[in-house]
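Model it.
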Amino acid sequence: MIWTDLMMRAKKFMWLIKAKNDLKVDEVYQISHLDIDQNEHEMDDNELDEDVLEEEDDGNEESQFESGEFIEAKAEGYKVEMVVVGDDCALPPPCGIAGGRGLAGTILVHKVARAAADAGLPLANVTAEASILLKWKVWLSEKNGEEMDHFKGPNDVRKFCWGEKRGIGGAKRNIQFYGSFMIDGDTYSLYDSVYLLKEDECEPYIGKIVKIWEQPDHKKKVKILWFFRPNELENYLIDTPLEKEIFLATGEGVGLFNINPLEAIVGKCCVICTSKDERNAQPSDEDLKMADYIFYRTFDVQTCTISEKIDDKIVGVEAKFLLNRKGQ
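Modeled.
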């Protein structure tokens, strides 16, 4: 059953490519952007204040899993992404509880990634689809000459730990805020750009982490400031976007940000700001070559206008934390 369900994910890419619906931008917000479950979280965002000043981060840590081929491809200017598969290793019976085990989960990730690539999906989508399978750990186990299927659900797979603590907030002073967290060896920090995936959808959304916290019931939450792809703004664009260009949300209203489960994050992405704003550290040619996306314009969700002006604050966050920072 597990094998069938996962393999169906690969097969769906044979008919995945389809015309996009001509939606108005407010409809796009409601349908595509990840909405908070009001039953799970009823706090107003004003209650999520921290007793700590925003401080500049030192930058992102490089993944300890980068292979020689990965680093070499990046150096040659190729766009590359990495999916780390935390699969089992084969152990002799005396060393393992379940006996000798083979590797099955990795095969599924390879098949889904290949199917997504063959269907013509962008690199970000291929990465997101492969990452979904990391929520499921499947292997075949052999003990006493009898093959058995062993399965662990999504909560048993992704290795998670919190990073540095920040302030305490909330109406009852029972919300713990954090500056970072780690999933499967990768560190995610405030103001990182990330991919988020909504269940049963194939294209990941792009946003910036502007707040991280854990609720009293131990549910992990992130506040995400959104980026928009050009196809989401077709009714408002008056020129042709640059290659890899996306637009930072600004203003007030629906579509600016959402509060999401931390588990919706499926990976990092590199978003470089090319604005000539004096607050923005100008990127090098190498930075631009390695960028997954660039932005220099904003989209005001209230007035539905596109501008090169970047407000001093967006969702209460100073612009310097949303632009390129020196030494990043």
